[in-house]
Amino acid sequence: MDHVKFALRLLVALFSIALIVFWLEAAWDFSHALDPTTGEAVRLSQLRATPAMVRSLAAAFAGAYNTLIALLLTFISLAIPITANLYTPKLIEIFIRDRINVFVLSTCALFAAHNLFAFSLSFDHWTGQLPFAVAVAAAIFGWLVLLPYYFYVVSFIDPLTIIKRVGHSLLRELDAAAGNRHSVPVSQQRLNRKITNLGSVLLRAADRADRDVTFDAIRMHVLVLARVHDVKARLPAEFFKVDNDLLVGLSGDATEILSEARVWIEHRIAIQLVLAFKGVLGRMPDGVSAMAQAVKNAAHEEATRRNDAVFDLLVRVLNCFMRESIKKKENVSVFNVVYSYKALVRRLLSDRTEYVPRLVRYLRFYAEFARVQGLPFIYELVSYELGELTERAYEREAAPARELLDAVLAFAGVEQSAGLVKSRAILAGYFLEHGLQQELELVTASLRNVAPAVLEKAKQGVLSVQDRVFWELNDRGLNFDFVEPKRRMRVTEVFDRLQADIG
Questions:
Q1: 3, 189, 160, 150: which is closest to 91 by C-alpha?
Q2: Alpha-carbon dihedral 455, 460, 463, 469, rounded to 10 degrees
Q3: What are phi and psi of 389, to 5 degrees?
Q4: pLDDT band at residue 1 under the 50/70/90 scheme
Q5: What's the pLDDT score for residue 272?
Q6: Degrees to nearest 5, angle at CA 175 with 169 and 180
Q7: For the chain: N or C, fewer Cβ within 10 A?
Q8: Mapping DSSP to helix (H, G, I), strand (E, B) and coil, where does residue 298 land?
Q9: Smallest Cα–Cα separation from 446: which of 480, 417, 489?
Q10: Burial class (CB in 10 A: 0-12, 13-18, 19+), 46
Q11: Separation of alpha carbons 87 and 197, rounded Å
């Protein structure tokens, strides 16, 4: 729900009702009014506010203003600090600087003061008519604006609004830095602080496993990352030179690397994602998936822009995700990160093949790391994923095709692992189907030392799967052992040849 739009509509509705109904009511009654002394119709020019009338109404207005201001200040003093404590202290600054907040609160204070002024002009021999009329109109305005303003303040408590306001504040700071509105050191400090503010929203949402807020905050980080690319060309060269006084916690070597690559802004944004990732691990599997996919999409976008420094940075972020997931021994989390990694490589096979070998080496490294950490499923999973990527590379006749095949064959322990056997047999079925005899021989040669029992188990594991949908709910949905009927015939032939050779 858009609280701001609702508040505006409510304000217009209330004022329309007040102007139409109140004035019609007064006009109808005035049209029937008679002077009690003459019995003639009362004329408007005869009406005057008496001192007693002004004093009586001013006293009532004073009580009303006290109630009105007390309601506003109590609600604001409770809602805003509590919400700021949940998400970011930046909310208080945003609230104070908002023009509508300043206008409404200042207007109420001025009208309350004006009411006292009108009261002071109620002398026995002279009573100010205009101040009295303004006091009446102001009192009506104050109460009519109360409810719409309440909904407007509620918009500040809406987490999505907080994210938008904090994010847009960061974007404005970027534009200010590009426009040289402050000195370089001041701009660097201000921008770094705004990035931290946005990161705080994400971190606190992740700590509470607040899914909707986490997803919105992730999207805002990616939006800011894209905006940095657009603004970067307008920033002065000295803006990219940083030290560890600005980037607290980094070594001098690290800040020198960031300065040379001109990516300290992107690095600060990436760090927020890495810190939040640690918070969602084990608590929010879809948060893990959302972060991995967001970084994957951003990395590919930077790759297509030939922005190699930022691409390398985002790949390092994915590597951090991978390591943290494996250290946590969260199969589901690693599963999701590996999928995003594979999806990135798959895209790069279409437009930036030169990146593929390095990413494949990273995948192999983390597969070995997973095995050392006692996660054999992940070790086998990466073999399946690399097998699929190998097929895609050969279909596109991509340069890294052979390197992908070598990566698949580099997995150790195939003699005792039915999972590794199945992934290679499926790949061998592809080579057999497409007449790639040299590659087929390489794969089948790697399987000739497999124990017959393991080979038979792997064969039955593939042939028994008739449905491509996995039998449990998971993020992937696909059964890795499923192959299309035509391919299944080729895979069966591969197993039969191997069993005959061993036989």
A1: 160
A2: -110
A3: -65, -35
A4: very low
A5: 94
A6: 125
A7: C
A8: helix
A9: 417
A10: exposed
A11: 9
